[in-house]
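SAMPLE LOG
Freezer: B-3
Tube label: C17
Construct: single chain, 202 aa
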Amino acid sequence: MLILAGAYVYEFLRLNFKCLLPSIPKVNSVYKQNPYAEAEFRFEESKTYLDSMDCQYVFMSEDCSSIIPRVEYDSTFDCFNGFVTPIVDGIPIENAFHCKSFEEFQDLFNTNSRSGLVNVHMLQPISTPSCVKPSATVLSAYGTDSKVSSIDVLKRWLMIFFELRSRNIFTLGFSTDGDPKYLRAMRLACNFFCQKSNDQYN
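STRUCTURE (predicted):
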């Protein structure tokens, strides 16, 4: 979120959501050791974080927030951030925009839309006796638009669930706002008023 939305937006959210996000100096120090890549799902880092407090149960949250559309070059990964991240079977493609010439960069601008939203996945550890109030951590963040489908959302949730489960982390639920595509994904996941089982989307 700090990378995609900027320091002012991040600090505003941090001050209004107590104990939710770490300070900017803390994020910068961690980023230098293990930089964030757009659309990367940080499952191993999450596993290490949960193991540090002996926690196996988490609750996931996902939401979009408006950002100023802009494209920036990330020298760490030699790619451009700020375009709408491609989605394949519900999964965003990590660091999708590389180019080696000005012509390729010009083609990127002509054929790809700039993202006006940032989609953030947060992982909230469930409190345990040894860790009364654990802070949430960012699992992934990437630029997007409002054209994602409910099936893509459901497939992404299933991917997150099984990736965490393979690391012995149990996801108790997903939360988001009242966006129709998220509500429909929840209805499909619960088989409420559905003619087809969600097994078909695995």
